[in-house]
Amino acid sequence: MFALRVKLLRPLFSGRSYSKRTFTHRNLLELSDRGFFQSIFPDTAAQKMKNLFKTAPQSIYAGFDPTADSLHVGNLLVIMGLLHCQRAGHKPIALVGGATGLIGDPSGRKTERNQLGESVIETNLQAIEQQLRKVFKNHEDCLWDTKKYSSKLEPLRIVNNADWYANLSLIDFVANMGRHFRMGSMLSRSSVQSRLESEDGMSFTEFTYQIFQAYDWLHLLRKHNCSFQMGGSDQMGNLMTGHELISRVEPKREVFGMTLPIVTNEEGDKFGKSAGNAVWLDENKTSPFALYQFFMRMPDSEVEKLLKLFTFIPLPEVEQLMREHSKEPEKRKAQTLLAEDVTLLVHGENGLKQAERVTNALYKGNVDGLAELNVMEIKQTFQGATMVDILPEPGMSILDLAMKAKCFPTETDAVRIINAGGFYVNQKRVQNIAEVITTGVHVLRNGVSLLRVGKRNFYIVRWQ
Ligand code: YSA
């Protein structure tokens, strides 16, 4: 599989070999050079952490709440953090919040989440678990050179916090654990403060959230000897509560937190979630092509930062790439490598091939590329497109087709817009309303026609 990765590299990077240093060091704190780690906690513990990383493989966990049926590209940064742990010889643990998802983390939120039912949480949980496994598998298959690094990657462990709360008695928990949580520090968390000051205030349910994340850490410390927790910087308060709990309950043990920067776009919107338009890891919500294009569109000012965060390309190679890129920015070499590596990680070899095929079909005027896609791929690519089934009739004209596909409200509109050049069949402008529909020209060999009105209104015609 690794051969694939090499095959896909641009000539500049062909034979690109990952520097051994990047993968054999165990000291995760070196990831700061790539822009990981907004902070470590406690901030005086760097040397101790370094020693632990050197001494033995460490378990490191990060949690994901099943508040949606897919993870998004913001969460992917935390997954990258876990993958770096794995590459450095440590043991990654992904926690899925079957219990905490029912409560709702107030961190970084201005209002309380709508409560999700248990069955929704269960469905989301399974989807997220599958995604995590898929990304780790894609990483091992496509981005990890087993021949070069003989040591095996520690497997990903997935745990669900519903499992340890299921049999816990409420009274026992409050009586025994509750007394170790101090109200003063819990109230001081910024996630609590900002909400207490807001008009709607904060519910008791949300206020308790930090208790559960703190107890999870204690549980994982006891069960899996997990002394490290990682999360976006919005998780800092929850990490601190966990640290405080463990220092009271297990005074001989020490635990450490690592927070990653919250990635935002140029406008400061949370990465991948701007204008309610999240970029998801689920191919049915964001196609491999759309994910690829999301990274291809990154402005030059952002691309170096993102290459460091979202790919495993060693830093000297990133620097070399950026030097090349600045000479010919219009070629978008840096964006291409970024888009390739992220798509490979999230969707694997087939996903990347599909994204490249669709890119060729759409942007290089290559109709053959479009014909190679199946209906499902076309649907994924043109999300929001209307699907129509049409029975072919001899002599059918462009105007007939446009009207049967309900591309226009009236025939007058159709004639006006088609004549004016606003109608496309298979990405080619068609201005003659009387043109007769022909196989091979208007109907692709996959039995589909792609109609477009203006820039963005797509219709997928399945010929019956
Ligand atoms: C963690 C530990 C537990 O023991 C129990 C639950 C949790 C889940 C945690 N409280 C939470 O709600 N996480 S999350 O589902 O909202 O997001 C998962 C991770 O992605 C978090 O670490 C979050 O900070 C991170 N994240 C989300 N958007 C991000 C981002 N990281 C960087 N940039 C972004 N744009």
Structural commentary:
The protein is of the alpha/beta class. The chain has three domains: 20-276, Rossmann fold (3-Layer(aba) Sandwich), CATH 3.40.50.620; 288-376, Orthogonal Bundle (Tyrosyl-Transfer RNA Synthetase); 386-463, Roll (Structural Genomics Hypothetical 15.5 Kd Protein In mrcA-pckA Intergenic Region, Chain A). It is 47% helix and 11% strand. The chain has 21 helices and eleven strands. The chain has a six-stranded mixed beta sheet, sandwiched between helices. The protein has a five-stranded mixed beta sheet with strand order 7-11-10-8-9, with helices on both faces. Helix 13 links the parallel strand 5 (228-232) and strand 6 (256-260). Helix 12 crosses helix 13 (236-249), helix 14 (288-296) packs across helix 17 and helix 15 (300-310) crosses helix 17 (333-363). The longest helix has 31 residues, at 333-363. The radius of gyration is 26 Å and the shape is elongated. The structure holds 5'-O-[N-(L-tyrosyl)sulfamoyl]adenosine.
